[in-house]
Amino acid sequence: MLNEKMVQTNEKSFQQQLPYLSISTIWLISFGFLGVQMAFSLQSSNMGRIFQTIGADPTTLGFFFIFPPLAGLIVQPLVGYFSDRTWMPRLGRRIPYLLVGAIVAVIVMCLLPNAGSFGFSAMAAMTFGAITILFMDVSSNVAMQPFKMMVGDMVNEDQKGFAYSIQSFLSNSGAVLACIFPFVLTALGVSNSAPTGVVPQSVVISFYVGAIVLIICSLFTIFKVKEYSPAEYAAYHGISKDATKENVNVFKLLRSAPKVFWTITLVQLFCWMGFQYLWTYGTGAVALNVWNTGEPSSSAYQAAGNWFGILSAVQSVAAVLWSLVLSRVPNDKRKPVYAISLLLGGIGFGSVFFIHNQWVLLVSFTLIGIAWAAMMTFPFTMLTNALSGKNMGTYLGLFNGSICLPQIIASCLSFFLFPEIGSSMPAMILLSGIFLGMGALSVSIIKEESIN
Questions:
Q1: Which among 167, 231, 241, 272 has most CB atoms closer than 10 A?
Q2: What CA–CA distance (Å, rounded) separates 425 from 418?
């Protein structure tokens, strides 16, 4: 034990400070995130619409939403663990995983919206869609995790909050594009209706465009960002050159995780449960409250689906703007701003239950976007400031459980909650508001730490 402490002390004594990066470099590190988040947003804003269109029963809709977080729960810790131990001279440490994930994601993005177009029965179409969703999320998670890790690897503590804010800005910019595509394409004359069980062309073409944007944006990061070599990485993070090659026990890592890891996880639990119900029931809630329909094959329901895309875009625009505000929040003000942002989001969620005017819902989703920006910025800033570089990727992969597990729990609970509240989709969104309020209250228990 004494020798281990002496080695750690010796390593720290040779640690170099991470350099200040240019603004352009920080942008390029995260630029591909725009494309990855565009893929996720196309999926999240259209999944409920797609599966109800091809025949899913609203009572069991939560089943299909288990696959995405389940994929993330398994894949992201593996990407973190193996990328910590990877080095390819021409590509680097994290970028090889980004490249493979982006290529596979592009393929499955072209398949998912066509689940009802291959002449399958409704059950076969839903099975095909579920399998495609699983592969899409596996690949998207493989592509997404490297962006978060590269900020932790390359950006110093003073710039890290700004870097994650830029990542949030790009993420939400991609989400805006994803969410408005079906609406814009419909306005341009692309069909927004289709035979029973078939997804409209406005949605299908949106996925094709998203796939193109994903690969182009990812290539910018792949070709323009040069990761630190193993020797540089070790020097900047105060570890030995071979430290990242050591075998680690995941359970031991969890036991020795900084307190901030666990306290933020509690906040994440409430927040991500809330957003899971938005993605699952949002389209149906808007269709019922504003268009007075629950029939997925009707033109009114498809119009509601397009409007939910616009509302999601408003959410993302609000998140983009709020991310710029958050980038200027001093370290000692993070927690109160985090809590206030989540509380405003909770109010936005809760208001959806009471509003029956499509235009007033713009205010609701603006508030939801404020919460989303905070969720994309503060947790990773607080956590990476408390980590050394030795197992950075593995810890960030494990921390993804604080995002995925709440979604799985929420989807499983929906089988009980949805019938118990009268199978009301608007009521499920009201429940989301309660969860965000609980998340805001939980921020007070977070204990921020910094590595020494």
A1: 167
A2: 8
In the three-class reduction of DSSP (H, G, I as helix; E, B as strand; rest coil), residue 92 is classed as strand
Torsion-angle region of 141 (φ positive above 0: left; ψ -120 to 50: alpha; else: beta): alpha
Query: How far apart (Å, rounded) are the C-alpha atoms in residues 305 and 322?
Result: 26
**pLDDT, tens digit, for every residue of 47-104?**
777 777 777 676 666 777 777 777 777 887 888 888 888 888 888 888 999 888 889 8
Residue 406 belongs to a domain: yes
Q: Which domain holds residue 220?
A: 21-224+246-445
How many of the other CB atoms lie within 10 Å of CB of 175?
27
Looking at the domain assignment, is residue 418 inside a domain?
yes
Contacts of 115 (CB under 8 A, 6+ apart): 50, 54, 125, 126, 128, 129, 132, 199
Number of Cβ atoms within 10 Å of the Cβ of 420: 9
Give residue for tokens 């009301």. Answer: 424
Q: Where do we find the tokens 């792949």? A: 222
- pTM reported for the whole predicted model: 0.72
CB atoms within 10 A of CB 312: 27
Tokens coding 209: 């465009």
Give every CB contact of residue 231 below 8 A, 6+ residues apart in sequence: 241
Query: Mind listing the pLDDT tens digit for each residue in 140-185?
Result: 778 887 888 898 889 887 888 788 778 878 877 887 888 788 888 8
Assign residue 417 the CATH number of its domain.
1.20.1250.20
3: Cβ contacts below 8 Å, ≥ 6 apart = none
In a domain, 82, yes or no: yes
Contact 33, 171 (CB under 8 A): yes
Structurally, the chain folds into a number of domains equal to 1
Q: How far apart are the first and last CA of the chain?
A: 19
Rg of the chain in Å (alpha carbons)? 22
3-state secondary structure of 117: coil
Q: Contact 105/139 with Cβ under 8 angstroms?
A: yes
Contact predicate 75/141, CB 8 Å: yes
Given a contact cutoff of 8 angstroms between Cβ atoms, the answer to whether 35 and 214 are in contact is: yes
Residues 6+ apart with CB under 8 A from 26: 155, 159, 162, 163, 166
What letter does residue 86 receive in the DSSP assignment?
-
In-domain check, residue 4? no
Q: Which of 414, 161, 384 is nearest to 278 (CA)?
A: 414
